[in-house]
Amino acid sequence: MLLIYCPYCEEERSELEFRHGGDAHIARPTNMADITDEEFQEFFFLRDNPKGLIFERWRHIHGCGRFFNAARDTVSDKFYMSYKAGQPKPDVPGVTSAAATNENTGGNAK
Amino acid sequence: MRKYSVFAVAREAMRGHKGWEAQWTSPEPRKEYDVIIVGGGGHGLGAAYYLAKEHGITNIAVIEKGWLGGGNTGRNTTIIRSNYLYDESMDIYEHSLKLWEGLSQDLNYNVMYSPRGVMMLSHNVHDKQSFQRHVHANRLYGIDNEWLTPQQAKDFVPVLDISASARYPINGAALQRRGGTARHDAVAWGYARAASDRGVHVIQNCEVKGIRRGPDGAVTGVETSKGFIGAKKVAVSASGHNSVILSMADVKLPLHSVPLQALVSEPMKPIFPCVVMSNSVHAYISQSDKGELVIGAGTDQYNSYSQTGGLQIITHTLDAICELFPMFRRVKMMRQWGGITDNTPDRSAIQGVTPVKNLFVNCGWGTGGFKATPGSAHLFAHLIAKGEPHRLAAGLTLDRFRTGRLIDEAAAAAVAH
User: Fold this and answer.
1) Residue-level pLDDT at A107
2) CB burial class (10 A; 0-12, 13-18, 19+) of residue A110?
3) Residue A97: what pLDDT?
4) Minimum distance, in Å, between the CA of residue A40 and any CA atom of chain B
5) Which residue segment(s) compose the domain that A58 sits in?
6) Shortest alpha-carbon distance between residue A42 and chain B (Å)
7) CATH number of A48's domain
8) What percentage of residues in chain B have a pLDDT greater than 90?
9) Could you tell me if residue A109 is inside a domain?
10) I want to staple B275 with a disulfide (CB 3.0 to 4.6 A). Which of A53, B94, B286, B346 is the partner?
11) Confidence (pLDDT) at A95
């Protein structure tokens, strides 16, 4: 079970108090009626599903009830940090995202 | 390949079992293959076998990062059934179930398919309406599924608590008698042996690190820990790691990977005659031929590749098991593990072409891929050989997330697959 730091309550609480909210930093298009099916698919369904660093939403559903974001490693399940909703995607010191790692391996001709 | 038979057993018994040969060969990779399959689980090995057997393509390599049977093929609770709601699902799972019925003979390998029945417990009015809808849909489609009263359910599984005072009262059950279990790692071994016999290269301990593409964007091969291997076609069937592999070709999938846990008890004498699933309280259970209770728990709520899972998930399932079957309260659990499942938004699999030429994907089997193994492998082989999906898998294409033609088993099957 995870221990999760809620940036609003400012303390670590058990995972049982939280509900996972999917990937963070996915902006809903403001012109939803105008976008193409491809753009809707990209926004609504397609995900990086990274092995490594992920930015995700959590909701402290049995606490303050608020959404916040967290950076976590999906292999060790270790949290790097959590931060309030609306804040920009932070840099995680010493960690590059899985997508960036792929670009650096060289063997993957694009 | 020497055929396995009662005569082979007798012959080897006479000469000290010195004549058994390796079940599959472990060759060094060639420079190039017609088809490379990424992922040596049941689906990938099976696809190689059916490509060789039915499509005449034998210049194939199956590349596996770990060892055969070390991934989800060896980590599931081995439940086989086809009582899904929608036509697209019934097509593929029933195709699979029919292949299960003859698989041991086809492969000359005992996969221990045991049609002992799969019973799904109903606890409330919603369950009852939903399961009866499944029963009717299945029977209209020619798939066996029947409705049982609580007493009929107890007659089938005598250890079930159907009393009115039970914590999770039972108001009926759906039973698919042809459903059951099979020996999971034997499925991987049987397919590997039969494929290897037809010239397929099974390459273990070889990790795919990149997908190489030519100037026209088409796939030309894969970078691996054993160097570059060329391929005319690359087919990915890597369960929880499909997103990771496909990202090497810049293909984004509608998947999220989560751990699914299972556990087994100490062995006991035969007490449990079938598979029982309860979607509402999330527990499923059967008894292996060794006597262990095989118990399936739920998934964690967050993305993870950790092959473990939260303790609260399995205690939740064991709470339910102890209420449904009070006699198991003192049974000790021996082992627990997790497998990484790749889940789609509609909880139905994806099998189809990708935006990259000659790159195929078989993914999104989520928490229910084992039962689909022969059917999925058979139809995936068709896709790889012909370049377009088989009629029975026509609904599972990747572009349904663009067109909106989803197969919404998520709601239809509650949680359990």
Assistant:
1) 35
2) exposed
3) 61
4) 8
5) 3-103
6) 9
7) 3.30.2270.10
8) 95
9) no
10) B286
11) 79
In a domain, A66, yes or no: yes
Nearest CA in chain A to B254: A46
Q: Is A102 within 8 Å of B248 when comparing Cβ atoms?
A: yes
In a domain, A63, yes or no: yes
Q: What is the DSSP string of B314-326?
A: HHHHHHHHHHH-G
Measured between beta carbons, the chain B residues lying within 8 angstroms of A105 are 209-210
Distances (CA, A) of A47 to A55, B141, B345: 11, 35, 11
* Averaged pLDDT in 10-residue chunks for chain A of 110 residues: 96 96 94 95 96 97 97 96 95 69 37
Total domain count, chain A: 1
Give me the domains of chain B, ranges plus CATH numbers. 27-109+184-255+346-412 (3.50.50.60), 118-177+256-343 (3.30.9.10)
Spatial separation of the C-alpha atoms in residues B351 and B275, rounded to whole Å: 28
Tell me how far apart the alpha carbons of residues B27 and B203 are, in angstroms, rounded to a whole number.
7
Are A47 and B211 an interchain contact pair (Cβ–Cβ within 8 Å)?
Answer: no
Count of CA atoms in the C-beta half-sphere (13 A) of B206: 24
Q: Which one of B252, B305, B312 has the shortest CB-CB distance to A75?
A: B305
Nearest C-alpha of chain B: how many angstroms from A31? 18
Is the pTM for the entire model greater than 0.90? yes
Q: Which residues of A touch B254 (CB under 8 A)?
A: 41, 45-47
| Chain B residues near residue A44 by CB distance under 8 angstroms | 401
